[in-house]
Amino acid sequence: MKLLAVDTSTYVMGAALTENSRPAAEYITHVKKNHSIRLMPAVRSIMQETGWKPGDLDAIAAAEGPGSYTGVRIGVTTAKSMAWALGIPVIGVSSLEVLAFNGRYTGGVISPFFDARRGQVFTGLYRWEDGRLVQLKEDRIIPHGEWLDEIRSLGEPVTALSPDLEKHEDLLQEKLGQLFKPAVPQDHLPRPSSLACLAADREGTAAHLFSPNYLRLAEAEAKWQEKQKEQQHERK
Amino acid sequence: MKKETIILGIETSCDETAAAVIQGGRTILSSIISSQMESHKRFGGVVPEIASRHHVEQITLIVEEAMEKAEVTFEDIDAVAVTEGPGLVGALLVGVNAAKAIAFAHDLPVIGVHHIAGHIYANHLVEPLEFPLMTLVVSGGHTELIYMKEHGEYELIGETRDDAVGEAYDKVARTIGLPYPGGPRVDKLAQTGEADIDFPRAWLEEGSFDFSFSGLKSAVINTLHNARQKGTEVAPEVIAASFQEAVSDVLVTKTMRAVKKYGTDRLLLAGGVAANSGLRGALQEAADREGIHLTIPPLSLCTDNAAMIACAGHFLYEKGKFADDRLNGVPGLALESF
């Protein structure tokens, strides 16, 4: 099975081609530059290098979020539009799960996270068990301090993986102490070949039905819903 | 015989997800528009993040519907034209990236289209453009007079210095308590009232083709405010009618002056506010009086649609003006000649 995988959910941009989970090409950058300009040239480049044609693809894997709203949309729109045009399915994978894949030779638990501003992070909890990545706690948005208190109580070593590690390193040290296990810099960047590997044994979605998993309502929507609730409460 | 060029057009610059298929630059094989207005109504205006979320959910459904209705396959399509800007950046990005991905899948060229060029070319779908011509572009973000000597040659001869017409309409609508979207409601209300209030017209310097609507907007707000303080009331339909007359007066007078100065007898009305009945009527009357041939698109082609994008894209295609893989959504894109 030939897969194209794209991930633009953070400043790390990735595109990969895999055949039966074996990487044929992989393109990763970690620069604060526009994914909308750079994704399609990256895809074309790896397709040209491998000599693959769009018609050769069996499915397209995309990191579905959470992450930057605009970033996630660029990858998801590209993946679903290309999949629809080719008549093949899209396979969505959590952007956090893709990052957690990098913790595969660690013991203990893996907490991948993306900075979500105002002290919050998008995160979840994973563990590598018998050559498989298992989710222990669902992806969520949560104040980072509160999250770290929660996972510290498990008493296990924690591998925290994030392209935004620097900003959160002090807090991780403070909250986790000895339980905090550092990782090498490249393991903090989600790899599109991991995304393809995770996608390989999953069911695809029809392109029309595929949309981002933002894990958070748009601000205006959240405020509107809150107002509706208040009004309902007042009526009671 | 060479078959006629077929262009797939995509438009997502604001709150409509639209796709269309155009043959030979003029025949609309299909034009599908999915409006998000119902979703944005509760916020009193378009919320960019919510617009972007809707676009990504809708995009492939709308393109598929356009192709099915047109009864074309990817083999029939010569190029994919998409709105590059101006517009809401997050919204534009969905259309641009969808267009690039669809084109890549079938090895088709991509064409980036300026949204306002699209509005101008909506007229070409009504009757073929003849040059030279003058266009009055009126929308929520634009108020411009553009002179064209040839396909793809745009000469900006006047523009608004503050609010766009559509913006002024929305603000006045809010002031008199009309819900979103305000523009069409002000227009409707204006038809039931007399234009008894003489609101100020901003003519600016002698010979200028620029516009200004902020003074007029303030005058409307002040009139209502003063009346309230005195405990009297001004009928909203009178406000609406008087405001609409002041707007039309300036737009029509300046446009007719521009037509005369540039010595053309062809005039186009373009943009979302071209749906305004007061303006349509006043401009038609003036054009008839002066023997000017005026083209106004039907309502369905005034508001945002992808047929106009595919139509403008057709002429870029003819000139071989293709975008590359790096095509991006550009919120403040300038209208450049091609």
Please describe what this structure looks like.
The complex is a heterodimer of chains A (236) and B (338). The mean pLDDT of chain A is 96. Chain A folds into two domains: 2-95 and 190-222, Nucleotidyltransferase, domain 5 (2-Layer Sandwich); 96-188, 2-Layer Sandwich (Nucleotidyltransferase, domain 5), CATH 3.30.420.40. Chain A is globular and about 55 Å long. Helix content of chain A is 37%, strand content 28%. In chain A, strands 3-2-1-4-5 form a five-stranded mixed beta sheet, sandwiched between helices. Chain A has helices spanning 35-50, 69-86, 95-100, 144-152, 165-176, 192-200, 219-235, and strands spanning 2-7, 12-19, 22-30, 59-63, 90-93, 109-115, 120-129, 132-143, 158-161, 180-181. With 236 residues, chain A is α/β, with parallel strands linked by helices. Chain B is α/β, with parallel strands linked by helices and 338 residues long. Chain B folds into two domains: 6-121 and 302-318, Nucleotidyltransferase, domain 5 (2-Layer Sandwich); 131-296, ATPase, nucleotide binding domain (Nucleotidyltransferase, domain 5), CATH 3.30.420. Helix content of chain B is 43%, strand content 18%. Chain B has helices at residues 37-41, 48-70, 89-105, 115-121, 165-175, 182-190, 214-229, 236-261, 277-290, 299-302, 307-318, and strands at residues 6-11, 16-23, 27-35, 79-85, 110-114, 133-138, 143-148, 155-159, 266-270, 293-295. In chain B, the strands form two sheets. Chain B has a five-stranded mixed beta sheet with strand order 3-2-1-4-5, with helices on both faces. In chain B, helix 2 packs parallel to helix 3 (89-105) and helix 4 (115-121) crosses helix 11 (307-318). The two termini of chain B are 28 Å apart. The relative contact order of chain B is 0.19. The mean pLDDT of chain B is 95. Chains A and B meet through helix 1, helix 2 and helix 7 of A and helix 2 and helix 3 of B.
